[in-house]
Design goal:
alpha+beta; 34% helix; 24% strand
Length: 401
């Protein structure tokens, strides 16, 4: 099989796979796995529970004293899934990469198949260095599933690395940053609160248990807590660089009720909590749980079938910058913008840092374009990213001196 060679050729292939999170990514993963095997590499696949999706991890080994080195080194990480295009007005087919006016349009071009394309384009050259015994540190590639729906795939991959005794020295997560260095981000936890009441005619309210009314009390508690978080004074050294310098709570959706003259027997709402790296999620979420438990007991006293349940949908840890100073120092020499940025969105970088791998986010494209119709990445950004990755690889080469 003839595989793509350039970054643009790879990006066109990657975009052609519809890896929207609700679909399987196995076709794309299998294609990349076969490419790796054609280079005599051994990709490792880790699957979700029903085997419909997979992560891929592959190592280009270093050599020392005629022994292959598989641990240490640098890992380049990216997610293969993309967000839906439903209801969006695209000027071109979102799953056909279209080059126009110096940009490449298509779902995932920016977030984040552009970065993956750069990785795959330079992979044969890295393998050549390995064959020639010129790598003093291995280079790893990690491709995940289901990042867009809660960073669900990477934990399977990291567990496998732990079992194999593979611990990279550093990680670059290639989320779109316009090739700027992001050194920290907030964590995120999302929840659904389901309130089960009892129906009654609105003229007989004492006979019912109003699910919406109880839900509103929980929402009010969350809003008050959110205000306290905003007013809470944080040490400047811990929040400097964040555009929102405090942890946030936000209610996002709500539904419930059937008619104005019926006491609602059900209401559901969702909320998320985004914590600063130094803030413990437990310290904020536990008071919400306790308040819900008290309300639930109050409801059950009125009707034994009435209660409130809190369901956690995702949990992504914050990414700290406390252990990545050496990596930041390396990257500082490879990017035009020397500023260390901190962001409010969450990435798989938090999971790598929690695993013990110092991590920085740096990739091609603008996050502003992610998830939108006519998503694009510029050819210039792709070139900068490929150069950046190539320079990182050079840092893993033996010196000629």
């Amino acid at each position: 099989m003839i595989y793509p060679k350039t970054t643009l050729e790879w990006l066109k292939i990657l975009i052609s796979f519809d890896t929207t999170s609700r679909h399987s990514n196995l076709a794309l993963i299998d294609y990349i796995a076969q490419f790796c095997q054609s280079l005599n590499l051994t990709p490792r696949l880790t699957f979700n529970f029903d085997k419909t999706k997979a992560n891929l991890f592959v190592t280009v080994p270093a050599t020392a004293d005629n022994q292959q080195i598989l641990t240490g080194g640098m890992v380049f990480s990216g997610h293969t899934d993309v967000v839906p295009v439903d209801g969006q007005a695209w000027d071109s087919d979102p799953f056909v990469a279209t080059v126009k006016d110096g940009n490449v349009y298509g779902r995932g071009t920016c977030d984040m198949k552009g970065f993956i394309a750069c990785c795959l384009a330079i992979l044969p050259n890295i393998v050549k260095l390995s064959i020639e015994n010129k790598l003093m540190k291995p280079i790893h590639f990690a491709l995940s599933f289901d990042e867009e729906v809660g960073c669900l795939g990477v934990p399977f991959l990291l567990k496998d690395l732990q079992n194999q005794g593979i611990m990279p020295d550093y990680c670059i997560v290639g989320e779109p940053t316009m090739m700027k260095m992001v050194t920290a981000h907030k964590g995120i936890q999302t929840f659904r609160c389901r309130v089960h009441g009892k129906s009654a005619h609105s003229s007989l309210t004492p006979q019912g248990v109003n699910a919406i009314s109880y839900a509103s009390q929980v929402i009010g508690f969350i809003d008050n807590l959110a205000e306290k978080l905003q007013q809470q004074a944080e040490p400047l050294r811990l929040v400097q660089g964040f555009d929102v310098p405090f942890s946030t709570l936000s209610v996002g959706t709500i539904s419930g009720g059937t008619a104005t003259n019926i006491v609602p027997n059900f209401c559901e709402f969702s909320f998320d909590f985004r914590n600063l790296p130094h803030v413990s999620p437990t310290a904020v979420i536990e008071p919400i749980r306790e308040f819900i438990q008290k309300l639930s007991q109050h409801m059950s006293a009125k009707n034994t079938d009435s209660y409130i349940e809190l369901i956690q949908d995702c949990q992504v840890p914050a990414m700290t910058d406390s252990e990545s100073h050496a990596l930041q120092g390396l990257i500082e020499h490879l990017v035009a913008d020397k500023v260390r940025y901190k962001v409010a969105y969450a990435t798989e970088g938090g999971q790598f840092t929690e695993f013990g791998v110092p991590t920085v986010i740096c990739g091609c494209g603008d996050i502003v374009q992610a998830h939108k119709p006519n998503e694009f990445v510029s050819l210039e950004q792709l070139d900068l990213c490929e150069q950046f990755l190539g320079n990182l690889v050079k840092m893993c080469e033996y010196s000629d001196e």
